[in-house]
Write a structure and sequence with these properties.
single chain, mainly beta, 2 domains, 8-stranded mixed β-sheet, 25 strands, about 10% helix, about 35% strand, globular
C-alpha cells in the first residue's frame, strides 16, 4: 500500500494546498449485499456501485474539532462529482460519525503518525462496512502550524485525511480535496507531466536510456481532478484504470486511423514502443478560458503570463510509468500517467494538446501519431511508422440500408446507424 500525499512520502501521498481541489452529496442507503469489507480495498476495489463513505471529525486536547459547517458542503459536492465523473457507475453515500473523536496531541500535526490515528479511530467505530473513511483534521489558527498539503490518503485503501482550509480560503476554486483523495483510494496516482532535454534543448520525450538523466518529472499536470486542474475533469485513461469506460471505449493498437471522442464511442488508445514503454492518447477539450491570465507555474517556479493559444482542443499523449498488471486491481492494472509536453518551446504544459496537422514521434522510432482533424467533440488520428509528415486524406465509403445507399466522405468515415459498409 502507498500513501498519497500530493507530495511523495514513504507510502503516503499528500495533496498540496490550492492544487488538490474538489467538491459530493449523500445518496440513498447502501444495500446490505453491497457492504464493503476492510480487506476488499487492498487493491483499490470496489470502484463501482454504491460505495459508503464515513466522515469522522477529529480533534486533540490542544486543537478542537472543526465546526461541521466548514466541510459538509465539500463532502456533499465530492460525492456528486464522483457520480458525474463515473458517468453514473458509482454512487458515494456519505455518512457522518455521530460525535467528534478526540485523539492524542502530536508534536507536528503535518507529519503525524497517521497509522496510529487509523487504529485509534477503528477502536471507536467499525470501519469495515465503509469503502472510504475520511478524517477531518483540526485546522490551527496559527499559520506557522498549518500544513502545506490539503489531504493525505492510502493508495490504494480506504483512509484519507482532509486538512484543507475552511471554505478553501486560500484558493479561488471550489475545494476538490475530498474527491481527489478518494481517487487515490481507488488506485489513481497524480496526473503528472514530464519535461525532457536532449543536447541542451527541451524536447517532447527521449528514449529510456536518456530519461533518468535528461527528464524532470513534475508531480502535477492539468486535464484532471487528479492533477492541478480547477475544472471537474477526468482523463479517459483514469476512467480506464477504475473500470469506468464502456465496452469498446479503449483499444490497444499498432496502426490505423481512429476517431477519439470526448465521450466515446472510442475514447482511449494504448500504444507500446520497442522498449516496452506504454502510452495513452486521448482527445481533450480546451481548458477553462476564464483561467487567470497570470498564474504561478509549478514547473518554472515563477509567475507565467498566459498568451493566446495557451489551451485548445486536441490530442494529448501520456507516458504510462510504473505500469503494473494484476487482476486484483479494478481494471487489471495500475500506472502513473505523465502528460508529454508536445510543445516544449513554451514553458507551460496546458498547450500540449496536439492540433490538427501536428505529430508526435516516439523517440525509439516505433510509431508516429498524426492528428488529422480536430472538431469540438472529437479528433481523428493516424497511427503508423514514422514518416515525418502529416497528410490528411479524405476517403469516401458507400453504406447501404435496404434499398437506400449513402456515400460518406471524411478522414475516418463511418456509416450512419443502421447502415452497413459495402
Amino acid at each position: 500500500m502507498r500513501y498519497n500525499h500530493c507530495m511523495k512520502f514513504d507510502k503516503r501521498v499528500a495533496c498540496l494546498v490550492a492544487l488538490c481541489l474538489f467538491v459530493a452529496t449523500s445518496v440513498g442507503a447502501a444495500d446490505a449485499a453491497q457492504v464493503v469489507t476492510a480487506d476488499s480495498t487492498d487493491y483499490g476495489k470496489p470502484t463501482t456501485g454504491v460505495l459508503r463513505a464515513l466522515i469522522v471529525n477529529i480533534g486533540t486536547p490542544s486543537l478542537p474539532a472543526r465546526p461541521r459547517n466548514e466541510f459538509t458542503a465539500s463532502v456533499a459536492t465530492a460525492a456528486q462529482q464522483i457520480n458525474q465523473l463515473s458517468r453514473g457507475l458509482t454512487t458515494v453515500q456519505t455518512e457522518y460519525f455521530g460525535r467528534d473523536i478526540l485523539l492524542n496531541d502530536v508534536a507536528n500535526l503535518c507529519d503525524a503518525e497517521f497509522d496510529s490515528w487509523q487504529a485509534a479511530v477503528s477502536k471507536q467505530v467499525d470501519v469495515s462496512p465503509y469503502r472510504f473513511v475520511t478524517l477531518i483534521i483540526p485546522f490551527p489558527n496559527d499559520e506557522a502550524k498549518q500544513c502545506e498539503w490539503d489531504g493525505i490518503s492510502d493508495s490504494p485503501g480506504k483512509f484519507s485525511y482532509d486538512f484543507s482550509p475552511p471554505s478553501d480560503q486560500d484558493s479561488n476554486f471550489p475545494n476538490m480535496t475530498v474527491a481527489h483523495e478518494w481517487g487515490h483510494n481507488m488506485t489513481l496516482d497524480h496526473m503528472s507531466q514530464i519535461i525532457c532535454k536532449k543536447n541542451g534543448s527541451t524536447v517532447s520525450f527521449v528514449s529510456r536510456a536518456e530519461r533518468d538523466k535528461s527528464c524532470k518529472k513534475i508531480d502535477y499536470s492539468t486535464f484532471s481532478f487528479m492533477g492541478s486542474e480547477s475544472e471537474l475533469r477526468i482523463a479517459a485513461g483514469e476512467r480506464s484504470q477504475l473500470g469506468w469506460l464502456r465496452a469498446g471505449e479503449e483499444q490497444e493498437v499498432t496502426e490505423g486511423t481512429f476517431t477519439l471522442g470526448a465521450d466515446g464511442p472510442l475514447s482511449l488508445l494504448w500504444l507500446k514502443n520497442s522498449e516496452g514503454d506504454r502510452f495513452q492518447i486521448e482527445f481533450v477539450k480546451a481548458l477553462n478560458p476564464n483561467y487567470p491570465k497570470e498564474f504561478f507555474d509549478i514547473v518554472s517556479d515563477d509567475i507565467v503570463k498566459v498568451t493566446n493559444g495557451w489551451t485548445h482542443d486536441g490530442v494529448i499523449v501520456k507516458y504510462m510509468a510504473d505500469y503494473e498488471k494484476d487482476a486484483s486491481f479494478p481494471n487489471g492494472y495500475i500506472a502513473h500517467p505523465y502528460v508529454i509536453d508536445t510543445t516544449p518551446v513554451t514553458e507551460i504544459v496546458t498547450d500540449s494538446a496536439l492540433k490538427a496537422g501536428k505529430s508526435f514521434v516516439d523517440p525509439t522510432g516505433t510509431f508516429q501519431i498524426d492528428v488529422l482533424e480536430v472538431t469540438g467533440a472529437s479528433a481523428t488520428v493516424r497511427i503508423g511508422k514514422p514518416t515525418g509528415a502529416v497528410a490528411a486524406t479524405k476517403i469516401t465509403i458507400t453504406c447501404v440500408k435496404g434499398k437506400k445507399t449513402r456515400n460518406v466522405t471524411g478522414l475516418n468515415p463511418q456509416c450512419p446507424k443502421g447502415f452497413a459498409k459495402i
